[in-house]
Backbone:
């Protein structure tokens, strides 16, 4: 622990406000540029682009019909009605997948199907529904259309040389469709973030084991692994490490050397937190950047940067660990995945009304887990999940959470809150 860290009136290290802690973290991460590699388009879903993509061609490459009907000159339909139709001669047919042959002349038309290329001379498509066949060579047109009606023009979707997708864009199925349409077979994407996870404490056993008296199963390891994989990270499990400084340091150092992010959790005792501090400081450069935050649950989090690896000492309580993951680790993994930061990280939210009064201590950010109940009229109600802050079942029962700000001493019943949905 650094001797110049600010203290409160009792001599304790002052807790960092959550937003200040997050800003400090993102500022530190901004100096690290994630690596990238080439990836086939078929394998790129869910990855993040590492470079801007300009369209190498127009899409569509030719003007095409968006309806089944007849390719016409729009001016030949002007004034056409049911009582005074225009008469057009069928002079050809557009075959799918083939460039049209011939030219649409005055008072002439071509059969055309949806997706057919617009033949020369025509500038609109008259839908079948607005025509009446007279014989195999003649139709009546009973409605007028303007130039460009029922036609998608060459380059209307995207023009050659214009931006298709930008660096930092998360590739979705529709994005792959766009890139396929303009002939992009490979893309440069950021390398998947690598996360090393270890649990600490002499009292922890593997979650598959039956714990003897005095021991508990490791909840955090499997929970954090799943959370990281959900964000697209590749995870390495370094197992459970005892409260031995040399062993702990060796394991964390090995994890830091092979990963972008290292998470260790457990050890609710002061001694174990001190050990976490020592290890992060020994790895150094710059070492600990945040030591404890004004957050409930999640106060004792440690955040460090060891060369180009972010290291997090998460609380041992599973709920606190997940809260800190959502607020700090989530953004860090997104950074190493190549997402532009800082920027809004969109998460599904819903407005709801609190169904009871809630007290809160000023000076800290409180995260409140809630269940939601639909109402026939108006907003759903948000009911706080009862239970101790460290009980994992409270998080499993919750459908979402909201925050009570540091400046508030509580909220009244029927206050509108923004609930972040847990997915």
Residues:
């Amino acid at each position: 622990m650094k001797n110049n860290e600010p203290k409160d009136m009792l001599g304790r290290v002052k807790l960092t406000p959550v937003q200040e802690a997050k800003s400090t973290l993102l500022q530190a991460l901004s100096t690290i540029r994630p690596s990238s590699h080439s990836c086939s388009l078929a394998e790129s879903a869910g990855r993040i682009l590492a470079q801007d993509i300009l369209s190498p061609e127009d899409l569509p490459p030719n003007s095409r019909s968006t309806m089944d009907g007849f390719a016409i000159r729009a001016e030949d339909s002007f004034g056409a009605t049911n009582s005074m139709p225009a008469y057009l001669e069928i002079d050809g047919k557009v075959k799918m997948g083939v460039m049209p042959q011939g030219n649409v002349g005055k008072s002439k038309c071509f059969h055309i199907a949806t997706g057919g290329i617009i033949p020369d001379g025509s500038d609109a498509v008259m839908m079948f529904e607005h025509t009446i066949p007279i014989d195999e060579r003649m139709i009546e047109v009973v409605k007028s259309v303007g130039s460009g009606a029922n036609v998608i023009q060459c380059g209307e979707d995207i023009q050659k040389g214009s931006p298709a997708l930008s660096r930092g864009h998360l590739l979705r199925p529709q994005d792959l469709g766009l890139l396929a349409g303009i002939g992009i077979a490979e893309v440069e994407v950021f390398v998947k973030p690598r996360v090393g996870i270890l649990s600490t404490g002499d009292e922890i056993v593997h979650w598959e084991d039956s714990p003897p008296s005095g021991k508990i199963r490791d909840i955090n390891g499997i929970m954090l692994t799943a959370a990281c994989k959900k964000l697209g990270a590749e995870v390495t499990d370094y197992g459970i490490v005892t409260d031995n400084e040399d062993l702990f340091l060796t394991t964390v150092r090995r994890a830091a050397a092979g990963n972008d992010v290292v998470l260790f959790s457990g050890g609710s005792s002061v001694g174990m937190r001190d050990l976490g501090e020592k290890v992060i400081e020994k790895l150094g450069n710059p070492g600990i950047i945040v030591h404890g935050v004004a957050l409930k649950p999640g106060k004792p989090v440690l955040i460090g940067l060891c060369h180009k690896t972010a290291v997090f000492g998460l609380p041992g309580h599973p709920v606190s660990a997940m809260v800190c993951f959502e607020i700090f680790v989530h953004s860090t993994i997104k950074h190493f995945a190549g997402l532009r930061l800082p920027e809004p990280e969109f998460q599904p939210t819903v407005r709801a009304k609190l169904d009871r009064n809630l007290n809160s201590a000023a000076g800290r950010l409180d995260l409140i887990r809630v269940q939601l109940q639909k109402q026939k009229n108006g907003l759903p109600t948000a009911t706080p999940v009862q239970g101790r802050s460290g009980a994992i079942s409270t998080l499993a029962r919750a459908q979402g959470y909201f925050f009570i700000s540091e400046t508030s001493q509580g909220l009244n019943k029927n206050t509108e809150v923004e609930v972040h949905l847990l997915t």
